[in-house]
Structure formats: structure tokens, C-alpha cells
Amino acid sequence: MDNTIQVSDLTQGYGRTTVLRDINLTLTPGTILALIGPSGAGKTTLVATIMGMLKPRQGTVTVLNTAVPNRPLLARIGYMAQTDALYDSLTGAENLQFFGTMQGLRRAAMPERIKYAAGVVNLQPDLKKPVQDYSGGMKRRLSLAIALLADPAVLILDEPTVGIDPELRQQIWHELHALAASGKTILLTTHVMEDAEQADTIMMIRNGEAIAQGTPAQLTAQYHVATVEAAFLQAGRDQDAHRRND
Ligand SMILES: Nc1ncnc2c1ncn2[C@@H]1O[C@H](COP(=O)(O)OP(=O)(O)OP(=O)(O)O)[C@@H](O)[C@H]1O
Ligand SMILES: [Mg+2]
């Protein structure tokens, strides 16, 4: 089976600064990968590179067997940026309409898709409010709904659960698992360990390096610890020790 996302020996950076080194990542159809790592580790940089917003400095990235950057490919990816890019003066419904049109959704399909996407994030009661009156969490939810609108094969979500309460988080995870079961491929970043534990595989990035990668069970076994959080902390200490010895 072809891989949905393949990152090979990627090095990435801005100007003279190197942010990511030798990143390798493979994501098969129907699987969920969580990217975790401290603030500034390079998660968003990796996501932006996979989206083709940054050209790989070294190495290659393919999505759906297409090398990025590739503009037509974007129509097949549902993307939620870390910073909400919404029209504040428009209502939630108008934002969904606008982005749905941008994504090439047919007018006839629009009401059904908006109903579905808003439903996943419980936003129906607030769709008529202008986005400038939304809370932070409501904006995140609207951004997630927009990513889901066009039923894309690939979802790339940069911190989708920020500002989302536990009950809704559970509902969103239920939907993400259902989407994965139907063959969608999902890559998300998070600082929340409970979210990481829901993923099929976890990739830990620290100081621009992939310090550990595996299923939650593999990671806890590898570090002889009970939780993914403990595995992550231990992997970080190992990286520090390794760097001191270099
Ligand atoms: N546009 C940019 N120009 C220059 N440096 C940048 C740019 N964007 C990010 N960086 C730097 O790259 C590094 C990684 O940033 P990145 O946003 O990828 O981290 P992150 O893991 O997503 O962090 P967070 O968890 O806070 O979102 C940081 O040192 C950051 O300062
Ligand atoms: Mg980020």
C-alpha cells in the first residue's frame, strides 16, 4: 500500500537557522500520527513543510505520492493552522460558505457538509454569530470544521484541541477515529498527552530532532515507563545526555 505522507531525510530551517534535522516519517492510509514536542521544537515547521508552504531545504516530502510543494494537492488536504485564519466580520456560517467555495465544494453539497462539519465541533448554535464575537475555543472549533468541510483524504491539524473542553475533545476524537477507519490519514500536533495517546503513532520532536517514534505502547515499553508523558521526558533526558557526550 502506498504511503500517504512520506518525509525522507528532511532538513529544514529559516535563513541561516536550522530548525529540523534528518526527519523521517511515514504515514499510511487510515492512520493517525501525533507530533509532540516542546514549544519551538519545530512541529509547525514540519507541518508547514508537509503542506508545501516551506520548500524542503534538504530531503523530500511527498503527500499522496506527489512531491510538495504542489498547489493542486492542497485541494486534497484539510489543513488547520496553529493560528486561526478566519474572517472576523463574517459569521461562522459565512466563513464555512466562503472556505467551502474556495475548496471547490459544489453549492448543492454545501448545506449537508456545513451541517456535518459544524456538528462535529458542536458549533451549530453559534453559526449565525460574527466570528469577532467568538471565544478562542470557538474559533479553533470553526477552523477544525473548515478543515473537515471538503471531506479531504488527508487532515493536517496544528494543535486542534487548544481551548476545547474535555467532553467536546472526546467527541472530536470519536470522529477522528471514524475518519481514520474510513481510510483518511491524519497528522496532528499537540501538547496534550491524552491526545497523543489516542494516536496510532507518536513522533517526538525535540531541538529539531526526532528523538522517539512509535505506538504509545512501544514508547512506554522502550523507556520502561507507564505513560507517554514519562517516555517523552525520558527521551528528552537521553537527548541531553547524548548531546553532553558529543
Ligand atoms: N517564520 C519564521 N522565521 C524564522 N524562524 C522561525 C519562523 N517560524 C518559526 N521559527 C523558529 O523555528 C523554531 C521552531 O518553530 P515552530 O513554530 O516550528 O515550533 P513548534 O514546535 O510548532 O512550537 P509550538 O509548540 O510553540 O507551536 C523556533 O525556534 C522558531 O523561533
Ligand atoms: Mg507550533
UniProtKB/TrEMBL annotation:
GO terms for molecular function: ATP binding; ATP hydrolysis activity. Transmembrane segments: none annotated. Keywords: ATP-binding, Nucleotide-binding. The keyword Nucleotide-binding applies. It comes from the Bacteria. Coiled coil: none annotated. Residues 5-232 form the ABC transporter domain. It holds the Pfam family ABC_tran. Signal peptide: none annotated. PANTHER family: ABC TRANSPORTER G FAMILY MEMBER 20 ISOFORM X1, ATP-BINDING CASSETTE, SUB-FAMILY H, MEMBER 1. This is NodI. It comes from Schleiferilactobacillus shenzhenensis LY-73.
